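Quick one, tokens below:
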């Protein structure tokens, strides 16, 4: 049985609230403006790291931004230029994305799902701009302001 302590409850409430707030901002921008798409499914799992475990190396801005960008780019390349059956493309693209994140030291585990999303949705290069680049910038700006200035956490790590 899990013992729910006051610090654990507080951490969970804060992470849940600011995750909802951040995804809410992206959702409003996506559905209540004409600016384009700002939300990607993988951003939901990024919230776990950014607001639940911001001290993790995987939650640092470089990892979040470039992890999402590289894996989404891999997905776009596979969907547009690798003429294999989808079940092979998805598997190999995820493997390639993980390989590149580890190779370039930009590991952000939630980004591992981007090739799946991109390939299933047959996304184009536009997907890299909206939602990936602009969505990540918004997520990171909010994470820095919330973690560093509101919650007084050491984020991002130096």
């Amino acid at each position: 049985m899990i013992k729910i302590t006051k610090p654990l409850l507080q951490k969970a409430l804060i992470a849940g609230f600011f995750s909802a707030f951040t995804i809410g901002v992206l959702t409003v921008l996506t559905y209540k403006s004409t600016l384009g798409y700002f939300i990607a499914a993988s951003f939901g799992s990024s919230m776990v790291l950014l607001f639940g475990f911001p001290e993790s190396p995987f939650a640092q801005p470089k990892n979040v931004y470039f992890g999402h960008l590289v894996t989404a780019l891999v997905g776009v390349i596979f969907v547009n230029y690798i003429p294999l059956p989808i079940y092979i493309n998805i598997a190999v693209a995820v493997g390639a994305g993980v390989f590149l994140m580890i190779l370039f030291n930009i590991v952000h585990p939630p980004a591992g799902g981007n090739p799946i999303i991109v390939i299933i949705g047959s996304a184009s290069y536009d997907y890299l701009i909206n939602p990936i680049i602009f969505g990540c910038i918004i997520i990171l700006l909010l994470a820095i302001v919330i973690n560093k200035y509101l919650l007084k956490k050491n984020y991002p790590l130096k």
